[in-house]
Amino acid sequence: MGVELEALFTNALGLQAPWVVENVKLNTTDRRIDFEIGCQGAGLACPACGAAAQPIHDRLLRSWRHLDFFQFETWLHCEVPRIACSDCGKTTQMLVPWARPGSGFTAAFEAFALALCRDLPVSQAAALLRCSDKQLWRRIEFYVEQARAQERFTDVRTVGIDETSVRRGQNYITVVHDLDAKRLLFATEGR
């Protein structure tokens, strides 16, 4: 494929220097597009301390699921550089601008998946996205934990605690509500 195509997809993915699309592999049989992204730079800033012009120690291949292009399942692949810093002495992997560390999904894919999960059962959202519901549950748990960590309950004055049966038998949940704001503060299985 021509240089123009890689430049077009570099712009479509919103990549900025030093990141560029180096190769595009289109598989019409499997309805899949694979983008190989490269980091073009010899001396990069240390992700740990910010020291400029540090040498690349090595590169580790990583892959992320992205939003579909043209109804084709899309994957980003990149040999992500690890920087050997002479200032702080650490060897640290660079952060990629399109995904959070360890995610396996791009930020755009995660955002779309979470928006779907707000309005659909997780199993239906997973079927639409062609991924497992377990992968979506992991993302939901990650962002719920982050949101819960930012919660402040200093303005709560009146709480209500209730135990209710989930279904017939001895399966109960306990819920704690802020009665003034009419919102759920906490829920857990059991009494």
In angstroms, what is the radius of gyration? 22 Å
Hey, roughly how much beta strand do the residues contain? 35-45%
Mean pLDDT: 91
Percent helix: 25-40%
Short description:
With 191 residues, this protein is an alpha+beta fold.
Describe the structure.
By secondary structure, the chain is of the alpha+beta class. It has 3 domains: 98 residues, no CATH class; 45 residues; 31 residues, no CATH class. It has 4 helices and 9 strands. Strands 1, 2, 3, 4, 5 and 6 form a 6-stranded mixed β-sheet that branches. Helix 3 crosses helix 4. The longest helix is centred in the C-terminal third of the chain and has 18 residues. The model has no long low-confidence stretch (mean pLDDT 91).
Characteristic key phrases:
191 residues; 3-stranded antiparallel sheet; 4 helices
Secondary structure layout:
Elements: H1 3-12, E1 19-27, E2 32-39, E3 43-44, E4 54-69, E5 72-84, E6 91-93, H2 107-119, H3 122-129, H4 133-150, E7 159-167, E8 171-178, E9 183-189
Parallel strand pairs: 2-5
Antiparallel strand pairs: 1-2, 3-4, 4-5, 5-6, 7-8, 8-9
Helix pairs in contact: 3-4
